[in-house]
Amino acid sequence: MKPIDADRPALLARWRALLADLPHRPYARDGADMLGVSEGALTDARTLSEEAQRLREPEGGFAALLARLPALGEAMGLTRNAVCVVERTGRYGETTVEGAVARTHGDVALVADLSRWAAAFALGETSRHGFHRSIQIFDAAGEAVHKIYMTERTDPAAFDALIADLADPDAPPFPFAPFAPPAPPPAAPSGGEALRAVLKRAAAEGAPVSITVANPGCAQTVTDRIAMVEVTGTWLNILDPAVNLHLRMDHLAGVRLPENETACVEALDAGGSVVCRVDCPPDWRAFLDSL
Predict the structure, then answer these.
(1) Is residue 144 located within the same domain as residue 213?
(2) Can you tell me the distance from the alpha carbon of 64 to that of 243, in angstroms, rounded to the nearest whole number?
(3) Do 143 and 269 have their domain in common?
(4) Does 262 lie in the same domain as 159?
(5) In the chain, is it the N or the C terminus that has fewer CB atoms within a 10 Å radius of its CB?
(6) What are 44-78's pLDDT values in tens digits?
(7) Could you tell me which residues come within 8 angstroms of residue 231 by beta carbon, excluding any fewer than 6 positions away?
(8) Of the candidates 256, 211, 46, the residue with the CA atom closest to the CA atom of residue 142
(9) CA 37 to CA 31: how far, in whole Å?
(10) 96 and 142 in one domain?
(11) Is-contact 209 223, C-beta < 8 A?
């Protein structure tokens, strides 16, 4: 069996060849899928270039990393799964920890299972939207659990200090689990129009909603009034200055209204997992029942 480190130069070369062949740079997760590897493994390979560097887990664990995020000022927190991604621009507040569960209290509201946080990286990369710097955390399978992006209002000195303190240039390759191809989408997608109707009503009425997107290592909730809801192809989007949501309607298997919940709708993937949850005003229950 080949050592893990022997695969990284080859993977980096394949990544560069893929970028050269495509008219537009893909998102890292999509590019990793095209290459048949996890996003974490691809990110680890990119540490052999100037785009990425490995970060060590700080003393005190990843909770200590979260505790330093308020010093950044404004940032953008991103959490995703295979179907949906949510982005919130604002401030990380205080972190509280109980066992392996950490909660951030602020604009970027997280409930994180730190037992699943395995490897962290700092990235500086040029995408179709310009140059971005970020800190990205992955689980042992190479799935991204959470990403923290600089914005124009992030304190650059605080960000640089955090990276400098945690940089680990001599770290060995991370032993991510073998890549598991993503599950195929449902043969008959459903639920996208119902979710669109919920978000459209919230935007039209200026009603506050809470939207939660989760993966096994992190759940992120945004609570706000939304304004711009658009559909582009198979994507359902919220495109507000502080809140973005991108959901693949063709990967939804349906929606459900949980029992004993006042007014909540959950979107499900083909495996029955909840990929997105929207908590609505209490008097919307009859409206949700009609969808």
Answers:
(1) no
(2) 26
(3) no
(4) no
(5) N
(6) 999 999 999 999 999 999 999 999 999 999 999 99
(7) 196, 237, 249
(8) 46
(9) 9
(10) yes
(11) yes
Owning domain of residue 203: 192-227+250-290
What is the C-alpha to C-alpha distance for residues 166 and 56, in angstroms, rounded to an integer? Answer: 5
CA angle 278, 279, 285 (to 5 degrees): 110
CATH of the domain at 267: 3.40.1570.10
Q: 219: which 2 tokens?
A: 């759940």
- List CB contacts of 103: < 8 A, sequence separation 6 or more: 95, 96, 97, 109, 110, 111, 112
Name the band, by pLDDT with cuts 50, 70 and 90, for residue 6: low
187 is a domain residue: no
- The pTM of the full predicted model, rounded to 2 decimals, is 0.95
Check whether 5 has a pLDDT greater than 70: no
Measured in whole angstroms, how far is the alpha carbon of residue 74 from the centre of its chain? 17
Distances (CA, A) of 251 to 185, 242, 264: 5, 25, 20
